Amino acid sequence: MKTTISVIKADTGSIGGHNRPSDAMVTKAKDRVAEALKTGLLSDARVTFTGDDIALLMIHGKGTDHPDIHKFAWDTFVETTKIAKSQGLYGAGQDLLKDAFSGNVRGMGPGSAEMEIEERTAEPFVVFAGDKCGPGVFNYPLFAGFADPYHNAGLLLAPEMHTGFTFTIMDVNHTEHDKVITLRVPEDYYDICTLLRDPNRYIIEKVVENATGLIASVASTSRLHNIAGKYVGKDDPVAIVRTQKQFPSTGEILSPWALAHYTLGDNRGSHHVAVMPVKQNSIISFFDGPTVMSAAGYCVHEGKLTEAVDYFDQPFWDYIREKATKKTLMIREQGFFNPAMGPQDEMEYTGVMENLKRLDAKFVARK
Ligand code: 13P
Ligand code: 13P
Ligand code: MG
Ligand code: MG
To answer: Measured in angstroms, how far is the CA atom of residue 91 from the centroid of ligand 2?
Structure first.
């Protein structure tokens, strides 16, 4: 049976600063989803939040990029924006960058990751949702989880995986149209590393298994500052990963998150901090961060979802959270000095550039 898994998320306003959506907003999204289940638009769905972003996980049979599904998500975010405005919340409608919906949320602000699959007998998958980070946050953990036997022991132990995976990587600095490259591990291992080392520019969009040609993972690739031409909030990406049998086990996909890798995001989208794995529906606090990532596992069967297993809500990750806190505090000691603050061309606010221009006029040439 063909099933589509769509995750579309947006920041449409939050309590405090950029901390969490209100209960009324989440209830509104849930009510709309309940309606869509009744009309048959969706066969199942879940509404969650990560920091100030609401994520809609939608199961349906319409395929990816379907205008009805995208319109449903857009209209839901328009409704949650109305509630945010009525409650006087901060950043109401933050990620809705266009006035009128035009068939697909891509390029309009919300992040989306979608895959159409032929359901396996058992179809386990993980939904990752991040806040205070760009889509490059997935470069390290997706690459390590699929291509590195230090994490994906299945590359050595499971014969189906021995021929590796194919990565589609997008150059997100190219804004006129999508610019992508397709590379395979193990053959193109070092070429992939060469690109993924720059997670602000080269971003994993999709992973496909070489042996079967089956889609294994998709991630959202939108960069809000490319759409808006200025800083309007961080991208706060989502990703879907299928696991088990011909794919890495769930544990292999979660394993790289134990590094608590540094990423660009956090306060004003402009600082390097360590990614903290958190449970679903977690809030934002220290320094408008830290950058957080939730991971929810499901099985989907005949279009119906099980309850979620909230992977980072388990004692092992308490230690990793502590490690992430320590790593973040260490780099925060360095304040605004690079690389604690991000590089100039990634500065999300225009202040640094404007100051540099003003100062440049005062520089004198020494003969
Ligand atoms: P199964 O043999 O049950 O697929 O489990 C393997 C596994 O996931 C161990 O990590
Ligand atoms: P969000 O993108 O999550 O709204 O965060 C914006 C920000 O600048 C926090 O300091
Ligand atoms: Mg926000
Ligand atoms: Mg956010």
So the answer is: 9
The ligand minimizing its distance to the Cα of 288 is 2
Separation in Å, CA 233 to CA 94, 127, 265, 348? 7, 22, 10, 8
Q: Is residue 161 part of a domain?
A: yes
What's the pTM value of the predicted model, to 2 decimals? 0.96
- The number of domains in the chain is 1
Q: What is the pLDDT of residues 187-222, one digit of tens each?
A: 999 999 999 999 999 999 999 999 999 999 999 988
Find how far residue 220's CA is from the centre of its chain: 6
User: Which pLDDT tens digit goes with each residue over 304-340?
Assistant: 999 999 999 999 999 999 999 999 999 999 999 999 9
Q: Is 19 part of a structural domain of the chain?
A: yes
Q: Is residue 311 part of a domain?
A: yes
Give the number of whichever ligand sits closest to the CA of residue 267.
2
Q: Which pLDDT belongs to residue 348?
A: 65
Q: Which residue has the higher pLDDT, 355 or 7?
A: 7
Domain enclosing residue 309, as ranges: 2-341
